[in-house]
Write a structure and sequence with these properties.
Distance between the termini: 54 Å
Strand content: 25-35%
Number of helices: 16
Radius of gyration: 29 Å
Shape: flat
Helix content: 10-25%
Structural class: alpha+beta
Length: about 650
């Protein structure tokens, strides 16, 4: 390196053009892999491959990467090539900004960067990395759940082997607003992923430079070339014909090309179809027991369009993929659940053992299709009891399982009101019901109350509610511990006590929307007599368990003098925890409380195995038993711990202190 070149990197913090080109050529594969893993997972794999190559090739100084070209990060403890550091920062800045929309940018349009024509451009081919094993797929799912900045930090740690301070410097240079937070998230993933992470990241699943190719729709391309030679008059005539055939039959939609059909691993004739009465003669009561229902189960054209859209969505398809769910093409063991017209849409539902997939297309117009994918592995009689089959104008229709004998609707905020019967067609499709309101609105909280057929279980009614995914969420309840009784297990939330308890937490359900939640259990773990004849209080733990395993919890406190449906006070919360589940059966929590006289107290309570409660901080007291109430100043800062019957120490929910 010449003396002048050295000055250009060390003095000014910028990189000479020839140095930048040398870095890109030498580090091209690593930089492309870094961009590919950082880019939004909402892009298709083909699009991510092309964008990753484009961003690396445009990283040469002189191309506009952002508002300012990043400076070389300050070096710590070692002396890596500053040119490499600068190119990494430029690639990262561009990848992180790819999905960013300016203020006021229309939500229905792609981000500005996605609209720019960039090299490389590939015509006639689809590119995607070679498929890896299940471990690579699982790692890809984990990375898709964390922010792009955390993915970038994870790759810098694992692939580039950079020390943590240098990762923070690079993220800062790339324009990440909170680099340390991104690093902490990456470290959490690193700890959970295990020692084989580096080998997995270097596998072909994430190598955007070693790709497979597949032709696009050959017949469609040929037709487009032919149409380009037609005159404006013929185009106008075609538009007139289209206007007169808007109300045509669904079969008027263009059929997928032979190439698109040939790319399918499974066709309509290979789809699994369960016999109608199989659900009553099997011990596995889940989606595999659903028969193929609907008036269009023999419509091969519709089902083929649905499979092609799932395998390789055409441009314009509205795609929604649930939390921790992959968008992999349909496998050979795909099962058909439903095909028919619902309102103004033709709908097809599939199940592949791990996911449920909904395809919808307009019945009588040439509008874009939609594709929704949600996770559904290890479902059971309750979590496989219904699927969202239609959302339209604030109304939801469900397709109920074949073992559902009765359906009702009820309002969680009206616990003393009876359920209202809900009509269900012979095919299992319900009448429209009100879609639950989103966050900020809590006038009502509609849920479904379903009853299973006595052919599989007697007197079994349960609640499910819509949280934005295809699979409704199962609601359950665990009552207060009984005197001398064994630990109580979660049960269905249909009793008066369960409904009254759920009324206090119902307004927080929208916080869980589209987060991959499988079930929510409301556990009343302790009851306490309040000082100064203030009535009684109930301590509860609400656990939302996801399909992928981890869950989040809210610990709440509610006094008997509060409104029957007033939201309970949240006194603790934690994410990615086993607390309040069968693997975390013990809990303790505390909160300040003010009596009617105006005196201030500090209260604490624990679950049935708690024998002693210890409070430190502004309140310093130890008391045997499962509840505690002591006088305190207003809003004291205190830490609560408990001792269990076996001598183990227990921290309060949300505490970061070591156990």
């Amino acid at each position: 390196m010449s003396t002048s070149q050295r000055r250009s990197t060390s003095g000014s913090g910028r990189v000479a053009l020839d140095q930048a080109e040398a870095v890109i050529v030498d580090q091209y594969t690593r930089l492309v892999r870094l961009a590919y893993l950082t880019l939004p997972h909402t892009l298709s794999r083909h699009r991510r491959v092309l964008v990753a190559h484009s961003l690396v090739q445009r990283a040469l100084p002189g191309f506009r990467i952002g508002r300012a070209s990043p400076r070389v990060p300050p070096q710590r403890r070692r002396t890596p090539d500053p040119a490499v550091a600068c190119m990494r920062a430029r690639v990262l800045r561009s990848a992180l900004a790819h999905d960013r929309r300016p203020r006021g940018w229309p939500g229905f349009l792609p981000p500005p960067r996605a609209l720019r024509p960039m090299l490389p451009v590939v015509w006639g081919l689809r590119l995607f990395p070679r498929a890896g094993s299940g471990e690579e797929v699982a790692l890809g799912q984990v990375l898709s759940e964390i922010p792009a900045s955390a993915r970038a930090a994870f790759v810098l740690l694992q692939l580039e082997g950079l020390p943590r301070p240098e990762v923070v410097d690079l993220l800062t240079a790339a324009g990440v607003p909170r680099p340390k937070e991104a690093l902490r998230t990456a470290c959490d993933v690193e700890a959970a992923a295990g020692p084989a992470t580096q080998a997995l990241l270097r596998s072909r699943e994430f190598d955007a430079c070693s790709v497979q190719t597949r032709p696009t729709d050959l017949l469609r391309r040929r037709r487009r070339h032919q149409l380009a030679w037609f005159t404006a008059g013929i185009v106008a005539l075609c538009c007139a014909v289209l206007l007169t055939t808007v109300g045509g039959a669904p079969s008027d939609r263009p059929s997928p090309s032979p190439a698109a059909v040939a790319a399918l691993a499974v066709g309509p004739e290979q789809l699994l179809r369960t016999p109608r009465d199989a659900w009553a003669d099997t011990s596995r009561v889940d989606f595999t027991a659903w028969p193929a229902r609907g008036p269009r189960t023999d419509d091969e054209a519709l089902i083929t369009r649905a499979l092609v859209a799932w395998n390789d969505p055409p441009r314009g398809t509205r795609i929604s993929v649930g939390k921790a769910t992959t968008d992999e093409p349909p496998p050979r063991d795909t099962q058909l659940l439903y095909a028919g017209d619902i309102g103004r849409e033709a709908v097809v539902l599939f199940h592949d053992g791990r996911r449920v997939v909904r395809y919808g297309e307009p019945v009588s117009s040439p509008g874009d299709a939609s594709l929704d994918i949600s996770r559904s592995d290890e479902s059971d009689v309750t979590t496989a009891a219904a699927l969202v089959v239609s959302r339209e104008a604030g109304k939801v229709r469900y397709l109920t399982a074949p073992w559902i004998a009765e359906a009702q609707t009820r309002d969680l905020l009206a616990p003393n009101s009876p359920g209202r019967p809900l009509d269900v067609s012979d095919e299992g499709v319900t009448d429209p019901v009100a879609e639950p309101p989103g966050a900020g609105s809590c006038a009502s909280r509609p849920v479904l109350q379903l009853r299973s057929s006595s052919r599989i279980v007697e007197k079994h009614a349960f609640l499910v509610t819509d949280l934005g995914d295809l699979t409704p969420v199962h609601l359950s309840y665990t009552p207060l511990p009984g005197t001398g009784a064994p630990p109580r297990q979660p049960r269905e939330a249909t009793s008066g006590t369960a409904l009254r308890s759920w009324a206090h937490i119902a307004c927080r359900l929208p916080e869980l929307s589209r987060s991959g939640v499988r079930s929510v259990n409301q556990w009343d773990f302790a009851e306490q007599k309040l000082p100064e004849q203030g009535g009684r209080a109930v301590w509860s733990c609400t656990r939302a368990s996801t399909w992928r395993g981890p869950g989040s919890v809210l610990v709440q406190f509610r006094a008997s003098t509060a409104s029957a449906t007033g939201p309970a006070r949240v006194v603790g919360r934690a994410r990615s925890t086993a607390a309040c589940s069968r693997f975390g059966q013990h809990v303790v929590a505390g909160t300040p409380w003010t009596a009617g006289s105006g005196r201030h107290y500090f209260l604490a309570a624990g679950s049935r195995e708690v024998e002693e409660i210890d409070v430190t901080g502004d309140v310093d007291v130890t008391k045997r038993g499962r509840t505690l109430a002591v006088k305190a100043r207003k809003s004291p800062e205190a830490t609560v711990r408990a001792r269990l019957a076996d001598g183990e120490r227990l921290d309060e929910v949300g505490s970061r202190s070591p156990r």
